[in-house]
Design a protein that fits this description.
The protein is mostly helical. Helix content is 75%, strand content 0%. The protein has one domain (3-271). The protein is globular. Residues 37-46 have low confidence and may be disordered.
């Protein structure tokens, strides 16, 4: 794989993972445009599953470093749950668990049915990008800004968890559907974005570990150095994007992302 192609895939993963445009959808498009399916002439020696896993670990590293204090708080909360100790960290860990379980269970079911790969088509990305842009705009335009993360409790966490299941549709965007749900529940734009990114950590970790186990089972260790470079590049792009997007949410609406999603979906339907 050439460095330019590796840089492109790392940029797509790092930039789109935490903003309301689908990272998996963009990667599906990149693979389809380049003719990648498992391996391809464009990807050279790197097996595409290996690179996908590496890119996800890169974005996971970025979000964990950026929110290192929140990660420490969640880890403390997990210990507090085991020790039956009450407090804010315990509540944070419990709500995060509730927000995470639905998508993991849904993903396990779809994988068991073999439906995940069936959804990875350009047409799916296009229609999901367009359809989910509409409720995202409505929730952001008319949603209240009254709630902060201090208001996160079991009920809103469960609703966000249910919304996150929609992210299994390529093009829907995990960030998009969780932002939509959080804004609809009255959380401020910045609080919604922050919690959406925190929700990403266990999900990315689970999917990356599953992919890694598949690679180990297949004995695929080829071009590990290139995959690690891709992970580093994705981490750098993701870290910068997280910082910029959080700053944007303090001053701008999500309308630019809504317009982009609709334009992207239309372009895919017309040209691909």
């Amino acid at each position: 794989m050439g460095f330019d192609h590796l840089l492109l895939l790392a940029a797509i993963q790092g930039i789109t993972e935490f903003i309301p445009v689908s990272s998996s959808g963009h990667l599906v498009l990149a693979h389809e445009i380049s003719g990648a399916s498992g391996t391809s002439p464009a990807s050279g020696a790197v097996a595409q599953p290996m690179l996908d896993v590496a890119l996800h670990f890169g974005t996971l590293l970025a979000v964990m470093i950026y929110f290192r204090r929140d990660v420490a708080r969640l880890a403390q909360g997990g210990l507090d749950v085991l020790r039956h100790k009450k407090g804010a960290p315990r509540q944070a860990a419990l709500t995060m668990t509730i927000a995470t379980l639905p998508v993991l269970l849904a993903a396990a079911l779809l994988m068991g049915l073999g439906a995940i790969d069936a959804l990875r088509r350009a047409e799916t990305v296009a229609w999901a990008s367009i359809i989910f842009a509409v409720p995202l705009y409505v929730a952001d335009r008319f949603g209240s800004n009254a709630k902060t993360l201090e208001h996160m409790a079991v009920k809103p966490a469960f609703i966000l968890g249910l919304a996150q299941m929609l992210a299994l549709i390529p093009g829907a965007s995990r960030a998009g559907v969780t932002l939509m749900a959080a804004r609809g529940l009255g959380f401020s734009r910045e609080a919604a974005a922050r919690y959406s990114m925190l929700m990403a950590m266990p999900v990315i970790l689970a999917f990356a570990c599953f992919g890694l186990l598949e690679l180990v089972a297949m004995g695929r260790y080829d071009a590990l150095g290139t995959a690690l470079l891709g992970a580093l590049l994705a981490a750098l792009f993701a870290f910068a994007t997280i910082d910029l997007f959080l700053k944007m949410t303090r001053h701008l609406s999500l309308l630019p992302f809504v317009i982009y999603r609709i334009g992207l979906g239309a372009a895919i339907l017309i040209f691909i």
